[in-house]
Write a structure and sequence with these properties.
The protein has about 400 residues and is of the alpha/beta class. It folds into two domains: about 5-245, Thiolase/Chalcone synthase (Peroxisomal Thiolase, Chain A, domain 1); about 255-410, Thiolase/Chalcone synthase (Peroxisomal Thiolase, Chain A, domain 1, 3-Layer(aba) Sandwich), CATH 3.40.47. It has 13 helices and 14 strands. It has helices at about 20-30, 65-70, 70-90, 110-125, 135, 140-150, 165-180, 195-205, 240-245, 275-290, 305-320, 335, 345-360, and strands at about 5-15, 35, 50, 100-105, 155, 185-190, 235-240, 255-265, 300, 330, 360, 385, 390-395, 400-410. Helix 11 links the parallel strand 9 and strand 10 (about 330).
Length: about 400
């Protein structure tokens, strides 16, 4: 018998709030966290907008010396984890630290460190490169720093699957608990890649929207969508076996029911045009949960606001859910916070959990002009109060990576 797995803690750093409550209230109020890039001069850049995290001070989450030895993506992960662990009420002094693990991924790691130290290399020579460059830069250090900060000695992994990173990270944590490798897993994603090379690279790929209008910049499923907006932040959750959660009297937000992961094996950036790979991931997650497509109430779509993603994901949802696809509420959290890349899946999973807890599906902000080929219910206009018993969250990453998590209302 596999262990049942429940969600007991939530933590978030986002462009519309640096804690879960602020983030969730922002979603309910259709707050758009997109604006002009402030981190560097964009005069020569076509893309000038991003969804930056505001007023983040790492010293609120860790001591200044520790913060200096972490790049921003690691700082975000530690901050979100701190909130999630406190929310879960997990007392590590009462836990076997080897039974508490970490699965926190980052798609890229620190581009800031690479840019900064490469400049030193060119201008001052190799002897001036920071000796901590490598441990500050590499993407696994988010998971490593989380483990070090909170004394988590169990399984510690970093899944890197581009924009599917956060969802895969939670899925692999779910499996680790199901099969008894851990009692508790801290899981999610983190990213901080709004940098000159990051923005230039995605712009060269023609993936970013180059509009100056923040209200029309990230508009998933809209006929005028024209690329995504880069975001940053972290979404981290505490998962634990049901038995462990009940034994310590934890508050249970929801139950993780299923996880599906596939690959399109088709193209390095474009999803499969028929949506078959993403559909199969959804089907596997539903099957894993022992449910049927008719049980799904809500889909938090990957919904990037690129032409191909939104069209092919719509096809995928129809393939996976059949005629029931027209009955489910669908939305894109990226309409307000942009695309958090490796952190997207973590933050969007939290959105699903909050939707179940509060019976509310937020609007896809900015969706105004309906696309004939995107003909499902994307929660246009205002959010809706609706009982959500079963939600699925999709993430699709460059390389053809597809991941789906199914989360459901906890029933004893």
């Amino acid at each position: 018998m596999k262990n049942r797995v429940v969600v007991t803690g939530l933590g978030a750093i986002t462009p519309i709030g640096n804690d879960v409550e602020s983030f969730w209230n922002g979603l309910k109020n259709k707050t758009v966290g997109i604006g002009p890039i402030t981190y560097f001069d964009t005069a020569d850049y076509k893309a000038k907008l991003a969804a930056e995290v505001k007023e983040f001070d790492p010293k609120n989450y860790m001591d200044p010396k520790t913060a200096k030895r972490m790049e921003k993506f690691s700082q975000f992960a530690v901050a979100a984890t701190k909130e999630a662990l406190e929310d879960a009420g997990l007392d590590m002094e009462k836990e076997d630290p080897y039974r508490v693990g970490v699965s926190v991924g980052s798609g890229i790691g620190s581009l800031q460190a690479v840019e900064r130290e490469y400049k030193k290399l060119l201008e001052k020579g190799p002897g001036r490169v920071n000796p901590l460059l490598v441990p500050m830069m590499i993407s696994n250090m988010a998971a490593g720093n989380v483990a070090i900060q909170f004394g988590l000695k169990g399984k510690c992994i970093n899944v890197v699957t581009a924009c599917a990173t956060g969802t895969h990270s939670i899925g692999e944590a779910f499996r680790s608990i199901q099969y008894g490798e851990a009692d508790v897993m801290v899981a999610g994603g983190t990213e901080a890649s709004i940098t000159p090379i990051g923005v230039a690279g995605f712009t060269a790929l023609t993936a970013l929207n180059t509009t100056d209008d923040a209200a029309r910049a990230s508009i998933p499923f809209d006929k005028e969508r024209n690329g995504f907006i880069m975001g940053e932040g972290a979404g981290v959750v505490v998962l634990e076996s049901l038995d462990h959660a009940l034994a310590r009297g934890a508050k249970i937000y929801a139950e993780v029911g299923g996880y599906g992961a596939t690959c399109d094996a088709y193209h390095i950036t474009s999803p499969a045009e028929d949506g078959s790979g993403a559909a199969r991931a959804m089907e596997e997650a539903i099957k894993d949960a022992g449910l049927t497509p008719a049980d799904v109430d809500y889909v938090n779509a990957h919904g990037t606001s690129t032409h191909h993603n939104d069209l092919f994901e719509t096809k995928a949802i129809k393939l996976a859910l059949g005629d029931h696809a027209y009955n489910v509420k669908i939305n894109s959290t990226k309409s307000m916070i942009g695309h958090l890349l490796g952190a997207a899946g973590g933050v969007e999973f939290i959105t699903c959990v909050k939707s179940i807890e509060e019976g509310f599906v937020h609007a896809t902000a900015g969706l105004e002009i309906l696309d004939e080929e995107c003909d499902l219910d994307y929660t246009k206009g205002e959010g809706v109060e609706k009982e959500v018993n079963c939600a699925i969250s999709n993430s699709l990453g460059f390389g053809g990576h597809n991941a789906t998590l199914l989360v459901k209302k906890y029933m004893k």
